[in-house]
Amino acid sequence: MTRPEFAQQIASRRSTSPKHLLEPSPSADVLEAAAAAAFAAPSHFSVFPVRFVIIENRERLAHLFEAELPADADAEKHAKAAGKAKKGPMQIAVVIAENPNDTPRERMERSMTAGAALANFLNVLHKAGFGGKTVSGRAFRAPDGLYDPEKETLAAFIICGTPDEEARCAFAQPRETSKTFFSRW
Predict the structure, then answer these.
(1) Quick check: 80 pLDDT over 60?
(2) Is the overall model pTM greater than 0.70, yes or no?
C-alpha cells in the first residue's frame, strides 16, 4: 500500500541543523500560511493558547541569553550565550498562554495544542521548501516583552531558513517505519 502524498510530505520533514540553513528565510506569505495551519490544531480553549513571535532584533535576544549568565561569566561564555540568538536565518519564539487556575489536565491540553500547532507550522515551512529545527525555550528572568512570564511560557524557538544541499539530501532519505509505534490493548 502506498502512502498518500500528504502523509509522504509530512514523513519527509526532518529537523535541520542551523548550520545547514541559509538565506532566504520564509516570506511573510509562507509565515501566514504556517500560522493558519498552526491555528487549525485541536484546542479545547476558547482562546487559542499558542502564539508565534518573529524575532526581528537578534541583538535584543542575545542580551536576554547573556543576562542569564552568572556575574563572573567570561567573554567566551558571553559569546556562546549571544550566539544562541544568532543561529539560522530566522528565529521564531513559540509562546504558550498559561492560566494559574488550570488543572493538570488543562496544562497538558495546552501543551498538546502547542505541539500540534508547532508540527503544523513546521510542516507548512517544509512544504514551502524551508528547513527548521525546534530548540527548547527557557524562562528568562527579565524577558523584555518577548512574553509575559505571569501569563505565558516560552516553549521553544523555531530556527528556520533554506536548507543547503546536504540537508535536502537528508529529506530524501526515507526513515524506517516500525510497527512498534502501535500496541494493542
Answers:
(1) yes
(2) yes
